[in-house]
Fold each of these.
Amino acid sequence: MIWLGDDPTVAKMMGAGVESVKAFCLCCGHLWSAPITFLPSATTLSKVTALMACPACNGRRVEAELVSFAKRRPEH
Ligand SMILES: [Zn+2]
């Protein structure tokens, strides 16, 4: 997990190579990944999770973890 401070904005997350978040539903345990690149750059992570609903149970208690592709090493 990447730590960018308490409540990073989309701009800050994308600056760190984050293109999506790994979302976790506290209601049913469903895990999915949600792209953040289409969101306004000033949207904060807490706002992102507040807007998300679980696609499996429609639960609104969602936690998100940042996923970065920036540190992934080239294969060749
Ligand atoms: Zn759920």
Note: The beta strands are 18-25, 31-35, 62-68.
Amino acid sequence: MTIPIHWFEAFNSGFEEIDESHKRVINEFNKLIETYQLKDVSQLDGFFQKVIYLAENHFAEEEIILEKHNFPDLKNHSVEHKETIQELEKFKSNLKNIAANEFVNFSLIYVRDYWVHHMFSEVIEFQRFNQTN
Ligand SMILES: [Fe+2]
Ligand SMILES: [Fe+2]
């Protein structure tokens, strides 16, 4: 069983609007985990499609917020967003080679941990900016 993500204080990035957006993604993502876990590997394509949609929306929202705050490293940050989407797309396109249903939960865990990592890396990056501005 894939454990859902819970928001906790350590995820605070120093940007309230970004934290709100991260919380919305967590909520949506937890719903997806519930829907997809223990399902057939053939459904993972749909799962990844939804995850990519969530990530793209979040990244677009975040870039607008960072621009508003004159975040100096926005260009690199946007590149990282694009790379993240590419990585998820790649993972999704490799799915057709995998037949084992056990892989379903692995995929959910992969995306969940990916998202936790995303939020933690932003805590470090954004808080450094917020402390000096
Ligand atoms: Fe980001
Ligand atoms: Fe983010």
Note: Helices lie at 16-36, 44-68, 74-94, 103-132.
Amino acid sequence: MLARIMRNDAFGWLVGAALASSGFAAFQAMQVPIDVKPGDTPTTIERDRGGHLPVAILSTAQFDALTVDPTTVRVGPTGTEAEPARTVQGDVNGDDRVDLQVLVRVPDLQITCATKVIKLTGKTMSGTDIEGSEAVTVDGCGVF
Ligand SMILES: [Ca+2]
């Protein structure tokens, strides 16, 4: 009986810790504006085409995109799929704030016809979690 109680307690503690850590992570992530394929509105991704997809992390008055550590950035339907092949600094939206543009290989994104959003996750140099997302249309999947 005692062993059973202890096991239940341990299980409860593990579940509680898992819930607490996932809730904490979601709460911690700073929402940042991103622009998938800057200049393309609405954003259409040709999933069967190779090459690179540019995704800009936009700087704001409160957030400097250049503080993002590019090695931590992941991009895809759940924000975990593709690593940047390279990064480019530049003002992509003409607001005089320098933005960070990451280029990811399209096949790495694992886009399907069900994909409706591209997410980006990462960390700043000081360890703050960031995330951003943008709605996208996947080309080559027929018209629904
Ligand atoms: Ca800018």
Note: The chain is about 20% helix and 30% strand.
